[in-house]
Amino acid sequence: MRPRGALARAALALAAGLALAGGMRALRPVPDVSESLYLFGTMVEIEIHGAEAAKARAAIAAVDAHLEKLHHDWHAWRPGELESLNAAIAAGESFTVDAPMAAVLAQGKALSCASDGLFDPAIGALVEAWGFHADTLPEGDPPSGGEIARLVAAHPRMTDLKIAGQEVRSTNPAVQLDLGAYAKGAALDLAEADLRAAGITDAVLNAGGGVQVMGSHGARPWRVAIRDPFAWGVVAALELRPGEALHTSGNYERYLDAGGVRFSHILDPRTGRPVTDIVSVSVLAQNGALADAAATALSVAGLADWPRIAAGMGVENVLMITGEGKMVATPAMRARLTPVGDDFPAPIRLVDLPAVSAPRCD
Ligand code: ADP
Ligand code: MG
């Protein structure tokens, strides 16, 4: 597989969500109900199988309202609960958040610790400095070396957060929270819970790079595909088991083009600079927040270090595609993948995960 240039990538960006959630269709007593919602800066597609239309639509309406609220509360740069919390942290004050916010922050802190800090939602100031606090692709120059060095030297870390019930404070005023790297996964986990509470058993939720399933599509599992980061199309397909989440982080949808260089929106908290050699990481896990956070962390870890981080985070199913189009995967993930067409776009090199114990943080 070879990189095929900016045009193909730009075209691909338009195809967000394409072919990611195509359930096989068979004769059935109740037609599937599907709806697309525009939330979290992306299309969220929900397809429900085996439920009466009115019940399915009511369930989707509940999800819509919930995700709308989360989008507002978790927004990294618009007025809302997270922005208020960030202002309090910058001022050295503690802040009382609502229960769902406390839960998602605690989850983010645990995931950040498990990733050895490579996934770190406290680096919002760096994300902002690189221009990614905008709905459109950033333009202009990258931040200066001096600015990056200053932001990195302040060492904002998720583990600086102290969460006591719903009261949150930070021991470091440089912490600026940006939940972008796991918000989609965490939100889809909550959406799944909403659907379950509404009596839905079989559904697929698909939000720009993240797809999660409940139950099955009748007699068949839900079948999904992983996008090709270089060309219009997919690199592999797989069947998701009930409750599984597949998240892909890539630098093909959000990036900064400056001086002939494409900078990824995934930053290495250790250097303050964008990830360079990895274009796509897919993680299959039992919940969306973990899969989403791990996909980001493994992008940062890169080709040499990702097995250690995957083991620390407890994820076993990983597919990584490098800037040169090389594909590497864990044996467990490889066993789940099937080619779409004759073969995979490149040979898949298998990498075993080391036996490491998860890092401990308080
Ligand atoms: P995508 O949105 O393509 O699924 P990610 O899940 O990797 O990609 O999220 C990337 C977003 O997460 C960035 O836009 C930024 O807001 C934030 N971010 C970037 N680097 C990191 C990091 N190392 N740890 C945590 N969040 C990050
Ligand atoms: Mg992510």
Automatic annotation (TrEMBL):
The reply on keyword Lipoprotein is yes
Task: Name the enzyme's class.
Answer: transferase
Signal peptide limits: 1-21
Q: Where along the chain is Mg(2+) bound?
A: A181, D292, T296
Please provide the record's keywords in A-Z order: FAD, Flavoprotein, Lipoprotein, Magnesium, Metal-binding, Signal, Transferase
Does the keyword Transmembrane feature in the UniProt annotation?
no
Q: How is the cofactor bound?
A: Magnesium. Can also use manganese.
Cofactor(s) the protein needs: Mg(2+); Mn(2+)
Q: Which SUPFAM superfamilies match?
A: ApbE-like
EC numbers listed for it are: 2.7.1.180
Q: Which Gene3D superfamilies match?
A: ApbE-like domains
MF terms (GO), sorted A to Z: metal ion binding; transferase activity
Task: Return the Pfam families for the record.
Answer: ApbE
Recorded hits in InterPro entries, A to Z, give: ApbE, ApbE-like_sf
List the catalysed reactions. L-threonyl-[protein] + FAD = FMN-L-threonyl-[protein] + AMP + H(+)
Name the PANTHER family on file.
FAD:PROTEIN FMN TRANSFERASE, THIAMINE BIOSYNTHESIS LIPOPROTEIN APBE
Report the family membership. Answer: Belongs to the ApbE family.
Q: What is this protein called?
A: FAD:protein FMN transferase
What is the species listed in this Swiss-Prot or TrEMBL entry? Rhodobacter maris
